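Model: You mentioned two targets. I'll fold them one after the other.
Researcher: Yes, keep them separate.
Model: Target one:
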Amino acid sequence: MPLLREALKANPNHADAHWELGYAYRFAGALQESGSECERARQLDPGIKLNSSAPNSYLYLGQYDSFSRTFPRATTQLLSFSIAV
């Protein structure tokens, strides 16, 4: 974590560094900090590591609305078909 914090001092808008710091915070049990870092990373780059489990911090904290907002936005298309009888 100290290396990531130093990297962010040099470049505070580095989305990957925020994301990795958030991930590190989660494993350290600093869940609030984890969520904040992941949010900052997504503000800087909305497509960053969409399949990562770092935002699970919200789930562990019981912040289900925040957790659900971390899911990628999907477009749904209705498929229509007909069945010949």
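Model: Target two:
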Amino acid sequence: MHSLLLYDTWDSMKDMKDLNVPIKVSYSKFGLPGEVLDIEPLSLVKPGRGEVAIRLLASPINPVDGIIIMGHFSSLPQLPEVPGVEGVGEIYAIGESVDKSLINKRVRMPQESGAWRDSVTAKVDELMFVSNDVDLKMASMAFINPPTAWGLLHNYVALKPGDWIVQNAANSGVGICVIQLAKHFGFKTINIVRDLSWEKPLMEMGADVVLKEGSEWYKDPKYMSTAKLALNPVGGTSIAELINLLAPNGVHVSYGGLSSEPSIVPVFDLMVKNITMNGFILFNYFASLPQKAVQDIMDNLFDFMKKGIIDIPVEKTYLLQDVKKAIAHAEGYHRKGKILLISNWSPPTE
């Protein structure tokens, strides 16, 4: 089994500045990520009975990471905290009673511990395993956006090939996964974006229609009352706009509130069209399912990644210690892909 070194203080890390020292990102107060995030040395803990030690491989920066760090999420952690809601790691050390064959197996970074750390110890029976033949970057982004898209497409309307979906924020991580899954299943998508430079990339991914936000697309008669499902992470006035495109008995699903504006729901349309309004959050969706059903969904998504059905674009990767630069990049409006954090730390060995 691998041996572990313990670095307990910042001073000891400075004394060994030429050595391979693990770090973590942390924050002790809520605020703007660029102002509250710190880099600290990480104390490594030997895995106990039934436990494994995991090293970070890659973790994406998601909008929810910034929302939590700023203290705007509905359920907030106790501080200090390590951020990062998803990522993929590799088992590098095992505790007593753990199968040695698990060394070098990939797993989801434990969500409750925060992914933005070089190493973490976890119970082996609580881990989600990821096939090593899934592309590493894709695997790191597998646990939030793809299953959210899956749940949105499978949980509300019995869609058939040829049926239409309308969504805004279509160039988001979830929006891209919706487009790619819809193409695979034969559904048609109307996609609303703030920046029409996304039109060509989204069409290449399988989008059928791409429209610019604010262009009064929702008044175009060729799109009105065509969709069976509307997917909305924006909220505000966009709810009324998307409902305008819903056919009678259509379903509107809110899964975010990016606009931060009061939501406006057109009551007359709800009554006349018999529209159903729903809310979705991945945690509640997975909590409602047996563990085997969750694993089956994830296995399907991993398989889609291997086959290239799901292929989320990545714009740039940053080392973990450059997290502030990475977040500043992730907050930009003109990105054409995700921003990933990667670790260059190597575990000590005997």
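Researcher: Noted. Anything on target two?
Model: DSSP finds twelve helices and 15 strands in the chain.
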